[in-house]
Specification:
This protein is mostly helical. Helices cover 62% and strands 5% of the residues. The chain has two domains: 89 residues, no CATH class; 128 residues, no CATH class.
C-alpha cells in the first residue's frame, strides 16, 4: 500500500488496522504476554507503518537500500523510545490534555494551544526546506499559499513557520483548507479541529474528509464550530 492509498483510507484508520494485525500476531506468538504491552506494541507498529507511507519516494527508497540494517536500527529506536517514556514517567509528564481542550470554548482552546509544543499535538510538521526537497513545493509557491491562506502554517519560535504534512496531497494543500482557515481564523485552532474527531461531523475527522474531497460537508461543520 503506497502513501496515496493510505491517504484515501485515512492515516489513523491505516495505523489502527496495522495495530490490530500486530496485536493478533503477538497474542498468537506468546499468549502470556502482557495485554497492555500488546496494545502498546500494536500502536507503535501502526504509527510507524503510517509514517513510512507518508515519506517521499526518495526517502522510501533510502529505507529500502538499508534493508539489512533495519532490525538494528529498529532496536535502537525502541530503546530510545523506552528511555524517553521512562524520562517522562519520572518527570511526571503527561500527554497534552486534548480531552480537556475538547470541553473548552474555541477562544480558550486557542490560548492553551499557544503554550503547547507543536510536535505534541499537530502531528508531523516540516519546514520549507523539507517541502521543497521532498514534495517539490517551491518556497515561492509555499509563501504565496501562506499569504493567501491556502495552507496552514504554524509558528514555531521566533518568525519560523512549519507546515503540517497531512494537509498536502500530490504536492498541494487539499481543497477546503482555505475555507476552514478563513472560518476559524487561528491556524493552530483550525489544525486542531481538522485533526480531531468533530462533533459537527458525527465524530469523523475533518482532514480525512477533505482528503476524500468532501469539502462542502467539512466547510459547513467548520462554520458551526467557528467562534462568533
Amino acid at each position: 500500500m503506497n502513501r496515496f492509498q493510505t491517504a484515501s483510507l485515512g492515516q489513523d484508520d491505516f495505523a489502527e488496522m496495522v495495530a490490530e494485525d500486530v496485536e493478533r500476531a503477538l497474542a498468537h506468538y506468546d499468549e502470556a504476554i502482557n495485554q497492555t504491552t500488546v496494545v502498546s506494541v500494536g500502536k507503535i507498529a501502526g504509527s510507524v507503518a503510517a509514517a513510512v507511507t507518508l515519506l517521499s519516494p526518495k526517502h522510501q527508497r533510502a529505507i529500502d537500500a538499508i534493508h539489512a540494517d533495519l532490525p538494528g536500527l529498529a532496536s535502537k529506536f525502541v530503546r530510545a523510545l523506552a528511555a524517553e517514556a521512562a524520562r517522562r514517567s519520572e518527570a511526571g509528564a503527561t500527554n497534552p490534555p486534548m480531552a480537556l481542550l475538547a470541553d473548552q470554548t474555541p477562544s480558550s482552546q486557542s490560548d492553551d494551544l499557544e503554550s503547547m509544543l507543536i510536535e505534541n499535538w499537530a502531528g508531523r510538521v516540516a519546514g520549507s526546506t523539507y517541502l521543497e526537497e521532498n514534495l517539490r513545493i517551491a518556497r515561492s509557491t509555499l509563501h504565496r499559499w501562506q499569504r493567501r491562506g491556502d495552507v496552514i502554517a504554524l509558528r514555531k519560535g521566533g518568525r519560523r513557520h512549519v507546515f503540517p504534512l497531512a494537509q498536502f496531497v500530490d504536492g498541494r494543500p487539499v481543497a477546503g483548507i482555505s475555507d476552514v482557515l478563513s472560518l476559524i481564523g487561528n491556524p493552530r485552532l483550525a489544525w486542531l479541529w481538522l485533526t480531531r474527531p468533530a462533533a459537527q461531523l458525527d465524530g469523523r475527522i475533518p482532514i480525512d474528509l477533505l482528503r476524500a474531497d468532501q469539502v462542502a460537508e467539512v466547510t459547513e461543520a467548520a462554520r458551526v464550530f467557528a467562534p462568533g
